[in-house]
Design a protein that fits this description.
By secondary structure, the chain is α/β, with parallel strands linked by helices. The chain has one domain: Rossmann fold (3-Layer(aba) Sandwich). The chain contains eight helices and five strands, in the order ααβαβαβαβαβαα. It has a five-stranded parallel beta sheet, with helices on both faces. α6 links the parallel β4 and β5. The longest helix has 26 residues. It is globular, with a radius of gyration of 17 Å.
Length: 173
């Protein structure tokens, strides 16, 4: 919701759309998204998440999960961090967010194991071994092939992160 609004705001500003008009036009979509996110927030709020570098989507996903769903970021890894291009996203991450850039899998695995997050976002090559160690994982590749833009997709995106936790709860019962 927040990312969609920022993107639309940038376009509206470029085309000279008045802020009051922008607010009136986007308010219904923002409200639908806020309402749709609520049920997932109940599952995700307070949960800890670790991102291995994989998709280049880690920073906006981390911002979304922290700010809109109340998740705690244990580490946000990204293959490459272009600070100028991602300045807006970086500014919106919670203070003290641990960022890592590039691939140093052994050290990242050590930090992940030490952090014991509730969910780990990683590539397919790490998912099964981490699941065997008792971690709940989300495949990073799904973020690349899932529509993640727009108010209507906000809840679907949140569900991608809630689903592995629901699965883990059902398996433990």
């Amino acid at each position: 919701m927040e990312g969609t609004t920022a993107w639309l705001q940038a376009a509206a500003a470029a085309f000279g759309v008045a802020p009051a008009h922008f607010d009136a036009v986007t308010r219904p979509g923002r409200e639908r998204a806020r309402h749709a996110l609520q049920r997932h927030r109940e599952m995700l709020e307070g949960r800890r998440i670790f991102f291995f570098p994989d998709s280049q989507l880690e920073l906006p996903m981390a911002r979304f999960l922290a700010r809109e769903l109340g998740m705690q970021l244990t580490e946000v890894g990204t293959p490459y961090l272009h600070r100028a291009h991602l300045a807006h996203e970086l500014a919106l991450l919670p203070a003290g967010t641990v960022l890592s850039e590039g691939q140093d899998v052994e050290k990242q695995l050590d930090r992940c194991r030490a952090a014991r997050p509730d969910i780990v976002v990683c590539g397919l090559g790490l998912a099964n071994p981490l699941e065997a160690e008792g971690f709940t994982t989300k495949w990073a590749i799904e973020l690349v092939f899932t529509p993640v833009h727009g108010y209507e997709q906000a809840a679907d995106l949140a569900e991608l992160f809630a689903r592995p936790l629901v699965r883990r709860t059902k398996l433990a019962a």
